Amino acid sequence: MSKLKRASFGSKLGVVLATAGSAVGLGNIWRFPYMTGQNGGAVFIMIYVVCVLLLGIPCMVSEFIIGRYGQANTARSFRKISSGTAWMLIGYMGVLTGFLISSYYAVVSGWCLEYVWASLIGKLQGNPDYIRTYFETFSQDPVRPVFWTLLILLATYLIVEHGVRDGIEKASKLMMPTLFILLLIIVVASCMLPDAQKGIDFMFKPDISKINGDVFLGALGQSFYSLSIAMGCICTYASYFSKNTNLAGTAIQIGVIDFFVALLAGLVIFPAAFSVGVNPDSGPSLIFITLPNVFQQAFNSIPIPYLGYMISVLFYLLLSMAALTSLMSLHEVSTAFLQEEVGTTRKRAAIIVTICCLVIGIFCSLSLSSLNSYQLFGMTLFDLFDFVTGQLFLPIVGFLTCIFIGWFVPHKLVRDEFTNLETLDNGRLFHVYLFLVRYVCPICILFIFLHQFGLI
Ligand code: PHE
């Protein structure tokens, strides 16, 4: 197996679009707007940008270094770079985090598919109570969410099974530009609504009085989540980069793309919400309850036939595509792991991962309905996964990765990967990177971690 030439992305564009595909997901279109809505609008966005620059991008570069150096799945890459010391456990933890999160990410991605279907057949029309009940009935149904989870996992399987170049890269090259175009169309429609300016002001006129510790920590966590850090995805994809890929440059490009998609998603949601007088601070239900209402009210008042209908279909379609490209990267973490560690074929590895994700996904989904009473530490399985992966593993893996790269991996190795053996003229940037990854990132992550447990 190892004698075969390892798969790789075919072009620079492929590298950027596939990695951006992992980063751009529900986090950008669902989580970012509701976090912005809850945390004071423009102020949150400003702090978020700082977090992406100081925390997200350096962490991403660190994972790039490990993955490209290792040329293997996340666990093996950590094993190689740590020469088999205990640090390699971070790699295994990353793979486990990626695997666990893929199951429940698949469930929420399935919800997006249901909403494409529902808006397509005109079922998302009705008064606000109807829309709320629709979501509650659907998410608690024992069968329908499972069906959509199965479908999105099947789509993910078909792409991943085709390999890095013919599957992941091709799909990303198709879906990412489509997603971007759809988003732009809806942004234009949304910003032309009456009173849209209020929403735009909310996003761009900072109210300094809104700054507090929670805003800061929320932005920090969001930057991590949105850039797919600490789940093995970035590391796995980097193992398919070529030795000429400029790691820092690529990370900056991904950071910029990811931020712009989030910003555009905000420019869809806030102008539309403000134009009908809805407050966009409803939290996670924003996308599935508030938004169908907002789209209906806002666009049905415009005398263009079927505008509200079309916007709704296109929006959920792009949301599903964003979810799918992220799910692909999560799936790939475990597929590459199985393929290389167990020594099986890609197809077989992908099938096993899909089945395991489906089984866990079914339990996650049912934990919102019939298995609701089975709880651990007072949480349903769905919430438990969210908690263990997002609030426990993610910060631990991120923190340890920074400490490991910043303090324990030989300086020369890190520098050689960063500068592509001194062929890139970015020696100065390297010093900035090293400073951030040694001091700023670990301290910030430690803060989030302690804060969420109420310790500071
Ligand atoms: N970054 C993705 C998003 O914004 C979520 C994700 C996290 C995907 C980790 C893969 C790995 O939705």
Describe the structure.
Helix content is 75%, strand content 0%. By secondary structure, it is mainly alpha-helical. Helix 3 packs parallel to helix 10. The structure holds phenylalanine. Phenylalanine is lined by residues 22-23, 25-28, 225-226, 228, 231, 233, 326, 329-330.
Report the bound ligands by name, code or SMILES.
phenylalanine
User: Helix- and strand-based class?
Assistant: mainly alpha
Based on DSSP secondary structure assignment, what is the total number of beta strands? Answer: 0
Globular, elongated, flat, extended or rod-shaped: what is the shape?
globular
Average pLDDT, all residues: 92
Largest sheet composition: none
Low-confidence stretches: none
The end-to-end span amounts to 49 Å
Q: Give the SSE string.
A: HHHHHHHHHHHHHHHHHH
Question: What Rg do the Cα atoms give?
Answer: 21 Å
Q: How much β-strand is present in the residues?
A: under 5%
Helix content: over 70%
Number of helices: 18
